[in-house]
Structure formats: C-alpha cells, structure tokens
C-alpha cells in the first residue's frame, strides 16, 4: 500500500509534507549543519519562526544544500511565523520581511500568526529575538484586533511573500471568527497536540472546514524537560506506548508520530541528534491498528504544556 506523505491544502492545492523538521531550540551553532543534514536525509519541510532566533543559520544550511545540488528552492517547504510584536497593521509586512531576509528567501510556503496575542513593538536592533518581555522585563499586551492583523496577512499572499497563510495556537472560537471576515481563509492551523492533549473536537471541526492541522510537541512533555518541566510521565516511557512500540518493532517516538499522522495530521518533530532526526522521518511507512490508535488516544488528560498564561495571567488564550 502506498503511504500518504503530503496533505493537500484546500485553497491553493499545494502539497504540504506531512513530516517536517521543527527548528525551535535547535542551537544556533548547529542549526545550519542540522538543516543541511536533514535535507540530505530527506526532510522537505522546515518549521521556523522569527522567535526561534535561528532563521539566519537555518537559511545558511538551506542555501548550502541548494548550492550542492541536493534540492532546489521549490522542492522544500519553509514555514515561518509572525511574532507577537508585529501584529499592528503597519508592522506585519516588516515581520515577514525580517524573517525572509534572515532565511535569504523571497517567499515562504506558509506563514502563520504565531499566537493570537499582540505585544508592544520592539525593534530587532534593540532586542533579538524579541520574546515575550519588554526591556523592563514585563509583558506589554496592546489592543490590536485579530481582524486587523489577518487583513495584512492576506496582503502577503497578494504580494507573493507567502504562498499559504494560517494560524497557530488558535482554538475554535477564533477560527470561527476569522472565517466570518476572511477574504483568504487560513489553510493551516498549528497547535500543540499529543496523546496527553488529543483535542478531538478541534480536529473534528478543522476537518469539517478544510483546515489542515500541524501537530506540535508530538512527544508531549519531552520537549519541555529541557526547559525545566517535571510533571507527567514521559510519553516515550508510558507503558501503553512502549508496548505498542515493541509489538510494531518501532521506537516510542515513531509510534507517537504515527498516531498523529494516521489521523491526517502533519508533524514537525525536532531533534538535535542525527540518529533521532533520521528515525523521526521514518514514521510514515507503517500502520497502527484501530485498537492501538484508540488506546493511545485514551491517554488524553488535557495536559497543555505550552500556555502563555504561565508567563502572565492576562494571556489566557486557552482559558
Ligand atoms: P518535539 O518535537 O515533540 O520534542 C522534541 C524533544 O524530543 C527534544 O527534547 C528531543 O531531544 C526529543 N526527541 C526528538 N526525537 C526523539 C526521538 N526519536 N527519541 C527520543 N527523543 C526524541 O517538541 P517541540 O520542539 O516542542 O515541537 C516540535 C516543533 O514544533 C518545534 O521545533 C517547533 O518548530 C514547533 N512548535 C511550534 C510552537 C508554536 O507555538 N507554534 C510551539 C512549540 C513547538 P533531542 O533534540 O536531544 O533529540
């Protein structure tokens, strides 16, 4: 049986690879070489953001891969995201152009609004990446309606800077609202999604309206351990996952990725380790049984690891 490796986006018909490489927390020093190696191993999608602070290095890796004839620009899918400090109408184009310049590209295949949260502008010359905090160490939300930002995001399609546009960290009510005024509907929603946070109603709603989903943090708590998280049992070590892994002769990581892929979701695992990077790409060519899918889904406990409310109680976008 031929395995599906792309998802076709509704508006443009563009084929987005289902397995990509996530660049958050990929160290600056290794980023160029990691991107180069990932391309060599077969990755064709890179998920970046201005906030990750490594777009320049990622672009260097891509440029070298193109120069060495491994790929052409049109063979790779590059996603980036508008940071929170660029939501005002006069800032959106500056946001994407800053990322494009760092990558050394003239368009992104997909451009997402990173969070539905607008923060006071800080120039990249003053602080880079701008992150959540102002120069005084405090968070400064500003009043920009999402509709204002979205109208500018649509213009990025008109002027060719983004082929596809979408949302990140949005829930049903915002998606519903955007569809009331969108001239160009979002094509992709990128959200935290793993067996501890299965988000079934959101997945169902997005399927209904033709909004493709990219699941981030597919390994659940794993990604947050390096940030100091010490909560729930690692999904990689959970009995349910390890039993299914040994039965299928796959690693727990491959099982977690396959569980998402088999629901039609795209994934973007990150690894600073070459062997794991290769292993993660090999998650499309096997099938989990219906029972295995169900038992993994039953691990859900609505555990959200990436919630801005933990930084500031005013940022309750998932409340
Ligand atoms: P992730 O890919 O779920 O997990 C990464 C963690 O798992 C790292 O600690 C990594 O360690 C480890 N790991 C990777 N492959 C492994 C394997 N095969 N076996 C064992 N451990 C493995 O987490 P993530 O980085 O949070 O999410 C992925 C991507 O989603 C990000 O890089 C970013 O592009 C995107 N993202 C987007 C948002 C958003 O707000 N839109 C938020 C978070 C993430 P090593 O590096 O040591 O292998």
From TrEMBL:
Domain NADP-dependent oxidoreductase: 20-300
Family: Belongs to the aldo/keto reductase family.
GO terms for MF: oxidoreductase activity
SUPFAM superfamilies to which the protein is assigned, alphabetical: NAD(P)-linked oxidoreductase (SSF51430)
Catalytic residue positions: 52
Pfam family for this entry, one: Aldo_ket_red
Site location (Lowers pKa of active site Tyr): 81
Organism name: Lentinus brumalis
Binding site for substrate: 114
InterPro entries: AKR, Aldo/ket_reductase_CS, NAD(P)_OxRdtase_dom_sf, NADP_OxRdtase_dom
Recorded superkingdom: Eukaryota
Keywords: Oxidoreductase
Record's protein name: Xylose reductase
Higher taxonomy: Eukaryota, Fungi, Dikarya, Basidiomycota, Agaricomycotina
């Amino acid at each position: 049986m031929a395995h599906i490796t792309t998802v076709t986006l509704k508006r443009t018909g563009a084929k987005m690879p289902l397995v990509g490489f996530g660049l958050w927390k990929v160290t600056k020093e290794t980023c160029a070489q990691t991107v180069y190696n990932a391309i060599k191993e077969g990755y064709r999608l890179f998920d970046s953001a201005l906030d990750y602070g490594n777009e320049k290095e990622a672009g260097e890796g891509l440029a070298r891969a193109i120069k060495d004839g491994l790929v052409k620009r049109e063979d790779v899918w590059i996603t980036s995201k508008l940071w929170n400090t660029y939501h005002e109408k006069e800032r959106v184009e500056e946001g994407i152009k800053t990322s494009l310049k760092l990558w050394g590209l003239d368009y992104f295949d997909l451009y997402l609004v990173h969070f539905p949260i607008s923060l006071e502008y800080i120039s990249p010359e003053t602080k880079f990446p701008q992150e959540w905090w102002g120069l005084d160490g405090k968070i400064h939300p500003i009043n920009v309606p999402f509709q204002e930002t979205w109208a500018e995001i649509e213009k990025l399609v008109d002027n060719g800077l983004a082929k596809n546009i979408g949302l990140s960290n949005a829930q049903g009510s915002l998606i519903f609202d955007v569809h009331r005024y969108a001239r160009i509907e979002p094509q992709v929603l990128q959200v935290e999604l793993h067996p501890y946070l299965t988000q079934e109603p959101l997945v169902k709603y997005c399927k209904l309206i033709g909004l493709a989903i990219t699941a981030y943090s597919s390994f659940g708590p794993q990604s947050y351990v390096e940030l100091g998280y010490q909560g729930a049992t690692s999904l990689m070590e959970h009995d349910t996952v390890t039993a299914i892994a040994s039965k299928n002769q796959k690693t727990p990581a491959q099982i977690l990725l396959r569980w998402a892929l088999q629901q039609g979701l795209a994934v973007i695992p990150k690894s600073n380790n070459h062997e794991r990077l290769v292993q993660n790409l090999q998650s499309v060519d096997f099938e989990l049984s219906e029972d295995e899918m169900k038992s993994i889904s039953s691990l859900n406990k609505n555990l959200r690891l990436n919630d801005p409310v933990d930084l500031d109680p005013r940022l309750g976008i998932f409340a």
